[in-house]
Design brief:
Elements: H1 2-11, H2 16-23, H3 45-54, H4 58-72, H5 76-88, H6 92-105, H7 110-122, H8 126-140, H9 145-159, H10 165-168, E1 171-175, E2 181-185
Antiparallel strand pairs: 1-2
Helix pairs in contact: 3-4, 3-5, 4-5, 5-6, 5-7, 6-7, 7-8, 8-9
């Protein structure tokens, strides 16, 4: 009985969505009876990109953000989103460029400051990262715990010297002739 109904389903005319897919129309171009036309209310590329980022699909999110740029133009939201996707893909130089361009559009945009700080920190540029984390913290009015933690870490990294306290006190500067100095360890 089940086999007969499956076989009967295969003998009829193909579904309009299947026929349209075979003909090359995407789901956003399906109209009545499978006619090929663009749907004016297609899903926004930024919205889709944000959902893909949340799902960990950074390549696809980047593609959707570029599609969103066609609709919205290269505004601060689009540029920041593209920069964030590039950051997650490990494309640090590209992410830095995109996020700097976003900040040229709106210097108070918190996500762009925070993500640029993360990008710079990933490159070991903690001093500049600290400035962007500080700006993000100020413009966010200290509400975000993540931004607060990023700023704390950046401050810690920039204040840390190359020596720990015990090591710094174990060295002795000795003068050796005219204009020559030598660092010597001191006995404990």
């Amino acid at each position: 009985m089940i086999i007969a109904s499956v076989a009967a389903g295969c003998s009829g005319p193909p579904d309009t969505s299947v026929r349209a897919a075979i003909e090359g129309a995407g789901p956003d171009q399906l109209g009545r009876a499978g006619a090929r036309q663009d749907v004016p209310d297609a899903v926004d590329g930024l919205v889709v990109g944000h959902r893909l980022m949340a799902a960990g699909e950074y390549d696809l999110a980047l593609r959707e953000y570029h599609r969103g740029a066609v609709t919205h133009g290269a505004n601060v939201d689009v540029l920041s989103a593209i920069g964030s996707a590039n950051l997650r893909l490990g494309r640090l130089n590209q992410a830095e460029q995109d996020l700097r361009r976003a900040l040229e559009k709106d210097e108070t945009f918190v996500p762009a400051h925070n993500n640029l700080g993360v990008t710079l920190a990933e490159q070991g540029r903690w001093g500049e990262a600290q400035l962007h984390f500080r700006n993000a913290f100020i413009f966010d009015k200290g509400r975000s715990a993540e931004i607060r933690e990023n700023l704390r870490l950046a401050i810690e990294k920039t204040e840390k010297t190359g020596y720990d306290d015990q090591e710094a006190h174990q060295l002795l500067l000795m003068r050796r002739g005219t204009g020559r100095f030598l660092l010597l360890p001191t006995p404990l």
